[in-house]
Design goal:
single chain, about 350 residues, alpha/beta, 7-stranded mixed β-sheet, about 45% helix, about 15% strand, globular, binds iron/sulfur cluster
Length: about 350
């Protein structure tokens, strides 16, 4: 081979080598899409720094755990929408969502994204290991009942995504190996009955309460207030399955003005619920954007009443809260449930979080 040819070949090889080893300009990894539905919902992987949030982080009296951010059930009164918005904004600020993706992830009104872009916490179990060490360091080896762990405080842990990703099941499997915990789970989904075996194992070593969330037994009403949640009969059947299997399960009710409490208590009794906890709706500012337009469209006669009741605040007026608490006690007694017991008695300060508490 002639010298010129050799030089040309070596220059070509070194160009190829440069191309192979070249370092592209740094760009943080984009968020991987794990799955997509035909109607456009995307499931997006997100690696969290922690998954078990302490009371100091959230400002409430219990530890909280939410495997997903966003929820396809799409309840109009859901207070977790702005936590989703915060996650999307952080991903955009950190360069993990482009400007175009950011707008797409927010949706035209800002609230849709919560239902259509569901973040799935990646490497959740290894992150949980570190968090559990932090938990036991903080509460001590003998876990005091005042350090409850509540799963599903901000998004439903058994939402449709769980069928595929099984994050909640993984968490429960891990918690079943611990002793002396005080665990609460809140869900609207019958999928929880899939995990009856793990729930029973948890109960052998820890204190457990499963709260099936249901606000009405009226099928026509539920579709107005909850876009894609499971039907009341399906939730009550799941409650019955858990109760029949010996799981400590009851109903949690967010009282909207339009609901029939008596029918709910009756249904809970028939399904074998061990308790019914009920409290008034909190109308946070992020909830108003979604809830009030629905009210105007479906229940215009109630709009003035709601606006008056929640004017300048997220909670109901004190007189109404007192009257409602008395009514709930009366119904608890009448239907044979523990009286005067609510979420606050079990987990401390109110469950529906204020802005700073929405750490996911
Ligand atoms: S099920 Fe819970 S988390 Fe999901 S939209 Fe309804 S209230 Fe929000």
């Amino acid at each position: 081979m002639a010298a010129g040819e050799r030089e040309a070949k070596s220059a070509k090889r070194s160009r190829q080598l440069q191309l192979l080893t070249a370092v592209p300009p740094y760009r943080p990894t984009a968020l991987p899409i794990l799955d997509e539905r035909l109607r456009g919902t995307k499931f997006v992987a997100l690696e969290p720094k922690s998954v078990l949030n302490s009371p100091q982080q959230t400002g409430v009296d219990f530890w909280s755990l939410n495997p997903y951010i966003g929820c396809e059930f799409g309840c109009t009164y859901c207070y977790a929408r702005y936590a989703h918005r915060y996650t999307v904004e952080r991903a955009h600020d950190g360069g993990r969502l482009s400007d175009a993706e950011f707008h797409e992830f927010r949706g035209p009104h800002g609230w849709e994204a919560f239902e259509k872009r569901v973040f799935v916490k990646d490497r959740l179990l290894s992150v949980l290991e570190g968090d559990l060490r932090r938990y036991f360091r903080s509460v001590g080896p003998t876990v005091h009942p005042s350090a409850p762990i509540v799963i599903g405080t901000a998004t439903d842990p058994y939402q449709p995504a769980e069928r595929r990703f099984r994050l909640t099941r993984g968490i429960l499997e891990r918690l079943a190996r611990c002793e002396g915990l005080n665990i609460g789970i809140i869900t609207k989904s019958p999928l929880i009955a899939r995990d009856t075996d793990v729930l029973r194992r948890i109960q052998q070593r820890s204190d457990l309460a499963v709260h099936i969330s249901l606000n009405t037994v009226d099928v026509s009403l539920i579709r107005h207030v909850e876009a894609r949640s499971p039907m009341p009969a399906v939730r009550l059947r799941a409650l019955k399955r858990l109760a029949d299997a010996g799981v400590h399960v009851g109903l949690i009710v967010t009282v909207l003005y339009v609901l029939d409490l008596e029918a709910l208590f009756q249904a809970a009794r028939e399904a074998g619920a061990r308790f019914v906890h009920a409290g008034p709706l909190r109308l946070y500012s992020a909830v108003r954007d979604r809830f009030l337009p629905m009210l105007e469209a479906q229940f215009p006669h109630l709009v003035a009443r709601y606006r008056r009741a929640y004017e300048g605040r997220s909670g109901v007026p004190r007189d109404y809260a007192r009257a409602l608490a008395a009514r709930i006690k009366q119904l608890q007694a009448r239907f044979g449930f523990p009286v005067n017991e609510g979420m606050a008695d079990r987990y401390g300060r109110r469950l529906a979080p204020a802005q700073g508490e929405l750490r996911l």
